[in-house]
Amino acid sequence: MSSKKEKKTKSVITSLKKKNKKISRKLLIYIIPVIIVTVLVLVNISASIAKNKMRQMARETLESSISNQADNIEAWLTENLTYFQTAKHTVESVGADEELLVPILDSFYGYNSNAPEGFYIGTTEGKLYKATESTMDETDITGSTWFKQGLSRIAMAYGTAYTNDQGETVISATGILNDGSDVIKVMGADVTLNKITIIVNSGVKMSGASSFLVDTNDYRILAHRDSGLVGTTLSESSSDALLAGAASSIIGEDLSSKEISSNMVAFKEVPGTDWVLVSYIPTAVILQVVTQMGVLLFMVGGIAIILIVIIVLFVIRKVIAPLGNISGNISSMTAGDFTIEVDSSSDDEIGIMGSKLSEFVASMRSMLSHISEESDKLGGESDNSARVSKIMFDASQAQSEAMDQLNQTVDQLATAVNDIAANATTLAQVVADTRDNSDKAGASMKETVEISQKGREDMEKVSLAMNDISKANEELVESINKVGQASEEITNIVGMIGEIAEETNLLSLNASIEAARAGDAGKGFAVVATEIGKLAQTSADSAQNISALINDVRELIDKVVGEANDSAESIKANSSLINIAVETFDKIYVNIQESNGLIDAMLEDVQKVDDVATNVAAISEEQAASADEILATSENMVEMAKNITQSSQDVADNSHELAQTSQTLTSYVQKFKI
Amino acid sequence: MSHNNNIKRILALLTASSLLLLSLYGCGASSSGGTADGSGVKVFFSTLTLDDFKELVMNSVADAGAKTGVKVDIGAPCATVDEQVAQIKDAVSKGYDAIICNPVDTDTALQLEVTAGDTPIIFTNSQPSKEHLTPDKYIYVGSYEIDAGTMQAEYVWNKLGNPGSLNVVLFQGQPGHPAAINRTKAVKNYFKKNGVNANFVFNDTAYWDTQKAADEFKIFLKTGQDYDCVICNNDSMALGVVEAMKDMGIDPAAVPVVGIDATVDGCQSILDGEMQFSVYQSAIGQGAACIEAAIALAKKGTVKDVEYVTDDLTYVWVPFSPVDKANAGSIH
Q1: Best B193, B207, B223 residue to mutate vs chain A (most A CBs within 10 Å)
Q2: CB-CB: which of A124, A152, A182 is closest to B202?
Q3: CA A218, CA B219: separation in Å to the nearest integer?
Q4: pTM of this structure
Q5: Fewer CB within 10 Å: N-end or C-end of chain A?
Q6: ipTM value > 0.85
Q7: Selecting from 3.60.21.10, 3.40.470.10, 3.90.420.10, 3.40.50.2300, what CATH number does the domain B145-280 have?
Q8: Do A62 and A281 meet the contact criterion of CB atoms below 8 Å apart?
């Protein structure tokens, strides 16, 4: 079990790790492209900004360079021109004396390296004056370019380029010699384009840049790095895109800096001339640094991406680690383990999650323990209920049995009551018999009374012998006294019978009460019935006693008759005695009459007993009916008790089920570790 | 209330008509800056040694100031850059809102700007190079010299019947002077653009000077070259040429002699049938424009609402107007 659990935990952990990996992978999938794009965009932006800045800087540098260069060229030109002008002034100051010209020109010869051939002077007359050492030769002075150019100005100025007699492309600085003479003389000095080219090329202030100089009067290239181009005309139809572009710019008088065929080109008019200096630098050179920077930026970007990825990974791990713990905790919770400790030390949302989870676990724990307690209680209660229902079942079973017994008892009671009824009927029969007997006794008494009447009549007949039987009479008196005594006993017996009747009455009352109680009353009733039986017996005995007594009375009477016979003899002897005997006879009669009355009374009592016995029988029958009802009721009760038993069985079943349910609940709750 | 309004209206009408009269009197040139309210604005005017035109500009600045309520203080004309720098330093310390400056040397514009500090400078008459000008701060009020040269060339070419080629005598102003450079360039470019083969038989500087121009023209005449016209960077030199022609017995009216500035003498020469054409640079217009720009800079910090201002807010170009015999008499 524990190994299984471990396995489960392990699988949870591995799945967690998987999930962790998934989260970090997901984050990386989202973050890395963003970072890469951002870095690329940044690199591109910086490269583009750098490019623009570099272009701008290059343009400014180029413009500054060209401006500087133009100033230098201007300075160079001005310097030379000043020198030329000074020389011209010197010549002018000498005056118009042409003979002095050569020595002066000689004195200047070789002085200025920029104009190595020195000065020369041509006149409208076709004369040429030059330094002695000068190799210059000009056949057609007035037709020469420099002379014509010189005629258009007094102050010395540079003209357009032309090829001189030496085959060199030169620019002449010329001007009319203002010497006051009427012969127009033009003084000049030649500057070779090679020289200007050197000045232009060496004046470039920006590394990687090149320059060339153009005369806007005839668009001739005065200076160029490529000496083959020097002296040629700049044309818009040039095969060199740069030259063509420069040409169109210059001709179109658009001297703003621009890019022409991958070159940054700047233009600058050389002050004091009609020349335009063109400076250009390949954009590749300008952007070389940018390209290098771009490469560097991309490398830095690459490293940054790697670093960021590592950092992001680290951060994700760091951030997700507590999440992993929480996931582990949740997994444990899923497995039912609430004994976990939730780490909520981190101060971010995950920390809050942890602390909330911790609270949840605590509340779950307390809830589960409550449930567990409750289910335990429920289990106990259901056990209790089962036990109670068991007891109830037993009790109801016992009751059912008791009811059965009761039923039986009632049945027995009913039987008993029926017996009583039967006995009572028998009693009544007996009493009726007794009354018949008593009736017979009464008839006998009447006969006795008739006999005694006849006896008195006889006595009266023997009245005369009374005197003789006085003594016998006295004996008779004694016997009668004995009869008197017997009568007293009869009286007593009758009293007894009365008592018995009374008791029988009471007993029957008791029996009815007991029967009503319908409990153990049956037994009581049996007793009563027995008493009643006994009483009936007693009544029978008394009746026997009465008959015996009556027999005694008859015997006594027989004796009296015998004695009377003796007395008759005596009466015969003594009439007085007979009288006395008659009187005594009367008295007997009265007594018998009284006895007859007593017998009648006794018969009445017997009648009463009969009534009672009949009543008892009726009551007993009623009791039997009641007992039947009781039986039916008790059968119902038995049925009900059985139902109760069934119900208590159901209750027991339900409580059993409840117990099972609570057990299941307990087993569920027990799955949670708290 | 309506009575009051009526009085106001009458006053306004009177003011307007008097202004109109004044402007008509002032050679009929438009005074663009005359309507701005410059009350409370203090302007210092610094100039180099005066000539006719510079004096005209100076006076028109003072007049425009008076019209708009601007307090204009005029410094003594400076002969040297040092004097001008000292003058501007003083002006800054006195808290002027703007300085109108006709610089002794345009190359020293940067020095003047450094001296002025936060105070804006309106350069006029002599144009500093572009890199020394800053929008809404160091601006230039003048006339577009290219236009002047173009007008000259156009007049001459039309006058000569639009020939395919022509011989031109050109007298330039002081070498390196922006006006001289631009006017010359404009002439050359006009011909070039119109496919005219302009042969500059004489092309030299006469330093704006009448006498120099006369002397040089006489020398040129000695060369015996043909010429179809004489174009001068200013009237002074044109007048010198006319003088030289007259000295040499040449009829000045034979070929077009043209100048720029429409000075009194120039206009008179045109009226006399000697010079044929000039270009009027409105000194009054420039003075008014200087004041308008000064008010704009002092009050709004920008010249964007000033008339004739360029899009880059660096130049205010008061237009030139051509002057020939028809209108020469009405200029002065």
Answers
A1: B223
A2: A152
A3: 27
A4: 0.56
A5: N
A6: no
A7: 3.40.50.2300
A8: yes
